[in-house]
YxiS (Fictibacillus fluitans), 100 residues
Amino acid sequence: MDPKDLEQQIIQNYKQDEGMMILVFAQWCINHDIDPKALYFRAYPAQQENKMLNHMLEQTVPKQESDEIADGTVLGVLSLFGNEDLAFEVMKEIERRPKP
């Protein structure tokens, strides 16, 4: 494979994986009645509108139609992509939940 083609394939794979990470985050938020955009902008207040987040929000389903997404899953995926600030905000939301 040509090095340029390989580079393009790696970039494309990363974008797909990043999209999946954002979808997991957005659906987790929906499942817990949290506004994904508001949570995202608490983590990254200086960022402009996130087009990928907007696109992935269109892919989410109502929480009644969604499978459960474990807290550890969303935290792990965010950390894998270096979104530590967003993972921190997710942790704060988890800690706000009523204790059983």
Observations:
- Residues 3-31 form the longest helix (29 residues).
- Helices lie at 3-31, 36-43, 51-57, 71-80, 84-96.
- The CA atoms of residues 5 and 23 lie 27 Å apart.
